[in-house]
Structure formats: structure tokens, C-alpha cells
């Protein structure tokens, strides 16, 4: 055996420096994380405020329409409704998808999700109402889902596909059924349509339980629309 | 469950970050030396050097191997080349006899098949050299490597220096798999060079590691039961507080497996061998007696398995499962992706903010350090990154480590199963 047993080198300084640097990188990351987190929520906050104003405006238009009964307002209403809906689905839906996936049941994320569900319900009400009143060429679809149901991702993909194909003519209102206990409005909707399985769709007061395939949904949408270039 | 997985992943992140930074510190500390150092080819004496060449069914490459020995820049009368025909069933023996006919410094040793380590031990008994090297019959040595290694022995002037390891490169890579391995070997040269600075080398690669004969004889030669005797001897040398140094520009060219099956076989042998060696020498792990080797290298080797397994789990979580879901979803719309691409491919601040930034942040650091070493490794080995174009870089960074991880997992599974059987 070699005689150097006692003096084998230990680079203590490097162990320590490496530890300190790791810690620094880590705490820098944590700080950045907090900053970005609050940035995220303030962006979400801005979005919801915008949605509020949009909704108010839409509601005003609807009231005005009802009281004056001036049918020339219908095209304006239709444009605003569709534009607002596209906004809602493009911005907040991402946030909600993120919060659902994260499963972090913080107060903040709970409020965001409830908020989103309520937004969807009132837009749906408005959309159905104005479809009747103004004969708008749109298909409002209520989509009942949970984040754990097995066929929901596929149903979601099919719905997204038709939103992409038909653009503003197909309006999807997703309702997360996990919020049933926290949000009475969700419970009311479930009871009214007697929803027992997920995914379920409600299109023009007609209920479809279980996964609705792409072809079937295409037929349903096309029979509900007066005319569309995508229906042949 | 989710929480436990998360905690494990974070521990793996922190550990790999720590090790990378440690390696980086050593590199930066020695970067001046690394940039300017050059091996000398001038040596004060020309000691007798034995070269052992174990050969088993090597008719295709043995001539080139012997030729590379014949071309070594060293007095022929100071070379003692022992070719061991380990019971070859092909024309290996005939080829050797023909080649060495007029070369007195070559000897042929023939016996029935008994394995590489046993062949080398037998040749070691006959070896007369003060130093000896082994050269696998699928490897070729650069003509200056021996001089560079001997010069390092004289420069270090340390009687406890037992092994000098070469810088291994893949010989003439033809296909993708070989080119990816070529990249891997280049990186290993630099990592070994850094380890060498810490006296922490734990492999003496089979092809042309130069051993001090007296020390290896004192340690009773190679372990004939071990499947990776080149690792075991290095661990044993470390255990007895002898030294291993790397000759960073002493090049040896080795044939890398070109097909996935021999690649798999080779790697499984290596990885299973590493696990067995680590298990055999586990008392050195985190043992202050062994200095940086025990406290850092051994700990790193052990945690390496943990990090690799976590990495695999992470890949499944982040890529495989989402990919499966995505395919299932796309099947629901008959893969009609056109409307999707038309409408969904815009990125805004919110999309960015919603990504898993905390983990992405650490991954970015790891990748940055990885790229830095990758770049420096090519400079260190005097090679160009794009020598074989950019295409091999894609599999190297995308899935090569995944493939290695899978083989490692299989080896670990095999190890634990065998252990159970034994108990």
C-alpha cells in the first residue's frame, strides 16, 4: 500500500463554493419565480377586468335592444358577442387549464376558476337569448367536464377543432363540474339538464351524454347553423 | 404521490446542479493550464515497455492493431509485445504468426479460451517491461502516445503513480450511432481530464492504459471474475492510495459498435460492471480517507444512478405521457391538424408565464453548463464539433442519453435481481 494515506487532498473550498453558487442560483430562481407568479396574476386580473367591461357593454346592448326593439342593432350585438367570446376562450381558458392541472387549491386559483365558470354561464345565457331574438347564426355549446374524466381531453380536442374550423360561429362554454360544491350556479345547471356523466354537451337545449365524436358533432353543428361554408 | 415525485425531482435537480457547478469550478480553476498544457514527447530514458494484446476472434482488425504497435515511435528493442490468442476459432492465430515472423520484439501466447482478464494476467507474468500497456485488438494507438505517457510518468516523478490513461476517440465513425459515440468520447476526454486533476479517475480504459508493472503485480493483477476488469483495477488502485493520471492528448482510437445490438451488449456490460464495482468498493463512498475521490467522485458515481432514474421518470412524465394523450386526442379529430396550426400557434406573454418556469430555469442552467463543456471538450480534443456535420448532434442531445438511461435501468434491474437470488 502506498504511503500517502494521510495526505489525500480534500478540496473543501471547492465543495463550499459550489454549494454557495448552487444556493445562489436556487434562490435567484425562487425570487424570479415569485416575481413571475405575481406578474401572472396581475395579467389575469387585467384580463378579468377587461372581460367585465366587455360584458357590461354587451349587457347594455342587449337591454337597449330589448327596450327599443330596434332590430338594426342585431348585427352590432352579434359582432361584439362573438369577439368577446373569442377573447374569453383564448385568454382565460389557458389560465383555467393551468390552474386545473396544477391542482393547487389556493384561494386565488379557486376564485379564478369560479369566475371563469360564471362568465361562461352568463355569456351562454346571453348567446342563447340573442340567438332567439336576433336569429344569430351561431351554435352555443355548453360543455360539462371534469379534469379527471377519461374521455374529456378527447372531447375538448374535438370542440377546439370545431372552434378552429367554424371560428366565431361555434361558441363553446366549458363548465368544470368539480366546482359544483363551491359554485351553486354550476349545481343549478347540472340539475336543470340532469347531467350525470362526463363529458356531456348541451346544444340548442338538446343534451348529449358521453363523448360526441367528430362526425356526429359536425352534423349537429351543421343542422343548427343556417349556412356555413364548412358544411357540405 | 405527486408531492413525493416533486420532491424527488427537486433533489435530483439540486444534486445535478451542484455536481455540474463543482466540475465547472475545477475546470475554471485549471483553465489556464488546460489551454496551454502540451504533452512532451521527450523522455530522459527509454525503459522497456510491454504491450499486451488479448485477441479473441479478431481476424478483421488484428493486423491493423499490430501495425499501429509496429508504428509506435519508440526503439523496437525496448518494446516487448505479447499477443495473446485466447482460443480464437477463426484465422486470428495464423494472421498473427505470419505478421510477427520477422519481428523479434513480438511474442505469441496461445491458450484455450479463458477470458480477457485471465489472458492478460498470464501475459503479465511473462511481461518484462517496467511499464506495460494493454491494447484491445479492436483499438489502434497513435504513434506518439507512448512517448507522451512516459514523459508524463517522468514529469510527475511519483513512484505511487500506477496508471496513465489515454484519451480515447472513436475510430473512423461511419454511421449515426458511431458518430454519436464519437461525440460522447470527446466529452469523456475532458471530464476525465478534470477528474485527473482531482486524482479521481475511476476507469483505466482497456485500450492502452499504461501501467507501472511493479504496482499492478503487487496488487495481484486483474480481477478475472470481474466483467469490467478495467474499472475494477482502477478502483483497486485508488483503494490502495496509488495514483491514476490522464494523458489528455495521448490518443487511442477504438472501434465503436455500429449496430444497436452490440452497442446494447457493450453498454450493459459496462454499466453492470460499474454497479458491481461500486458495490464492491462501497466503503470508499463518502470516506474522507480517500480525499476528493471518496468524498466527491464516489458520491457522484452513486448519486449518478439516482439522478439517471429520476431523469427517466421525468422524461416519462413530461414527454411520454403527454405525447400519448396528444396522440389519443388527435385521433379524436382524425389528425386533422390544419385548423389547429392555423389558430393556435401564437405565443403571448401569458403562454410564457403559464409554463413551468421554475423547473425550466434549472434545466436551462444544466443545459448551459452542458453546452459549455461540450464546446470546451471539442477544443480540448482538438476536434471540430461539426466534423461530421450537425446531424449527429440531434440524436446526441435529443435521445442518446435516454437510450443510455434505459440500458442503465435494465442493468440496475439485473443487478438487484441477481443480488436477491444470491441472498
Structure description:
- The complex is a heterodimer of chains A (232) and B (423).
- Chain A is α+β, with helices and mostly antiparallel strands.
- Chain A has helices spanning 12-68, 74-102, 107-134, 152-166, 184-193, 214-224; strands spanning 139-145, 170-176, 200-203, 206-209.
- Chain A has six helices and four strands; from the N terminus they run αααβαβαββα.
- Chain A has a four-stranded mixed beta sheet, sandwiched between helices.
- An eight-stranded mixed beta sheet of chain B has the order 3-2-1-4-7-6-8-5, with helices on both faces.
- Chain B contains 15 helices and eight strands.
- Chain B has helices at residues 2-29, 31-36, 62-70, 92-100, 116-126, 145-156, 176-197, 213-218, 229-239, 260-280, 291-332, 338-344, 349-354, 357-380, 393-422, and strands at residues 49-55, 79-86, 106-111, 131-134, 139-141, 161-170, 210-212, 243-254.
- Helices cover 58% and strands 13% of the residues of chain B.
- Chains A and B meet through helix 1, helix 2 and helix 4 of A and helix 1, helix 11, helix 12, helix 13 and helix 14 of B.
**How much β-strand is present in the residues of chain B?**
5-15%
> What is the CATH architecture term of chain A?
3-Layer(aba) Sandwich
Q: What pattern of helices and strands is seen along the backbone of chain B?
A: HHEHEHEHEEHEHEHHEHHHHHH
Count of individual domains of chain A: 1
* Helix share bin of chain B: 55-70%
| CATH classification class of chain A | Alpha Beta
Reading off the top of the CATH hierarchy, the class of chain B is best stated as Alpha Beta
- Encode the helix/strand succession of chain A as letters: HHHEHEHEEH
- What summary fits the major beta sheet of chain B? 8 strands, mixed
Radius of gyration of chain A: 25 Å
Strand order of the largest sheet of chain A: 2-1-3-4
> Which spans of chain B of ≥5 residues are poorly predicted at pLDDT below 50?
none
Question: Taking strands numbered 1, 2, ... along the chain, how are they ordered across the largest sheet of chain B?
Answer: 3-2-1-4-7-6-8-5
- What kind of sheet is the major sheet of chain A? 4 strands, mixed
How many distinct beta strands of chain A? Answer: 4
Low-confidence stretches of chain A: none
Oligomer: heterodimer
* Share of residues in helices of chain A: 55-70%
Query: How would you state the average pLDDT of chain A, rounded?
Result: 81
